[in-house]
Amino acid sequence: MGIAPRNPRKKAFAAGLWKATALAAPLAVAAAAPAAYAQDSGEALFQQRCAQCHTIGKGRLVGPDLKGITSQRSADWLHRFISHPQQVAQSGDAGAKSLLAEYKIPMPDQDISSGQIDAILHYVASAGGAPVGSAASNAQSPANVNNPAPAAPTFSARAADAGARLFTGETRFANGAVACIACHSVSDPAVPFGGGRLAVDLTGIFGQLGAGGINAMLSSPAFPPMIAAYGNHPLTSAEIADLTAFLQRASAQSSAATPSNRSSEILLGGGAVGLVLFLFLLNLVWRERKTEHTKRDIHARQISTF
User: Fold this and answer.
1) Which residues, other chains included, contact 133 with Cβ-Cβ below 8 Å and sequence gap of 6+?
2) Cβ distance 246 to 160 under 8 Å?
3) How far apart are the first and last CA of the chain?
4) Which site among 21, 57, 58, 246 is 20 to 30 Å from 148 CA-CA?
5) How many CB atoms lie within 10 A of CB 53?
């Protein structure tokens, strides 16, 4: 007895269902992929570009806490500010100027594409629970959002002294990084001549950034000069802790008394004393100079013989 042939209609229906499933599955994956990719790439970009100076809901660091920023500012403003923050501030934008006035340290320009900025903003919005670009034109600036810095930890005097030696270069960094004093100055008895003038004075930096901000800046430098100096010579966690302790001490001393960074006065005073000594020695030498021609006596004797 032979096997009855299959129903041609059922066979065609099964074949059509299989083809539809085979086509729909890749389309569904493709539709879900962009959102997942944007989320992943946005988080990676945030960690690479932003996390050194900003948090999302964990308080301020070098810059403001970004929680809710996408609902406080329009997407267009955020794009312009992230790409060229100093240019926006120089244009007279009130929000950018207030940020610079509060946080003191200007944000460097970011060499990233518009798509990457979108990815970062979507990540910030999803992490902070706010939609992107829902702000009114007069939205509150993040500088005015009440995100206080966490309480400062207490460091030992021994750690502060160790940090001072690292700052001045008396103790070398483990990975060969350049000493902070090459570019920065600070008012502290351990730094009698203040320090360098190539970058900002760090006397009150602890009061501005706190321990978390300093740790973020030193562990993952975001500014081009610091990247060049420390990118291949990272600081150890112990070195960062000692430098933080030193900067905390300097900040506390500056708030308790008028800052006493007198390097300029010392140099000017030393120059003035040196000039006086030079003129005094020059006068002594000048008084011993010959005031008459060396052959005048010979000439006088010759004349007297006539």
Assistant:
1) 70, 74, 75, 76, 78, 121
2) yes
3) 169
4) 246
5) 23
**Cα distance between residue 69 and residue 85, in whole Å:** 15
State the burial class of residue 168 (Cβ atoms within 10 Å of its Cβ: 0-12, 13-18, 19+).
Answer: buried
Domain ranges of the chain: 22-144, 157-256
> CA quadruple 54, 60, 63, 65: dihedral positive or negative?
positive
Reported confidence tier of residue 39, pLDDT bands at 50, 70, 90:
very low
Tokens of 237: 């966690």
Residue 34 pLDDT exceeds 70: no
Q: Where are the alpha helices (DSSP H) in 182-306?
A: 205-219, 224-230, 237-256, 263-287, 296-304
The chain-wide mean pLDDT, for the chain, equals 76
State mean pLDDT over 67-71: 88
Show the tokens assigned to 103: 């946080």
Asked if 105 and 200 touch (Cβ cutoff 8 Å), the reply is: yes
Long-range contacts of 219-222 (CB under 8 A, 24+ apart): 219/52, 220/51, 220/52, 221/52, 222/49, 222/52, 222/53, 222/62, 222/108
Provide the CATH number for the domain formed by 22-144 in this structure: 1.10.760.10
**C-alpha span between 52 and 105 (Å, rounded):** 13
DSSP state of 56: S
CA distance 119 to 126: 11
Percentage of residues of the chain with pLDDT beyond 70? 70
Residue 167 pLDDT > 70, yes or no?
Answer: yes
**pLDDT of 31:** 46
**Length of the chain measured in residues:** 306
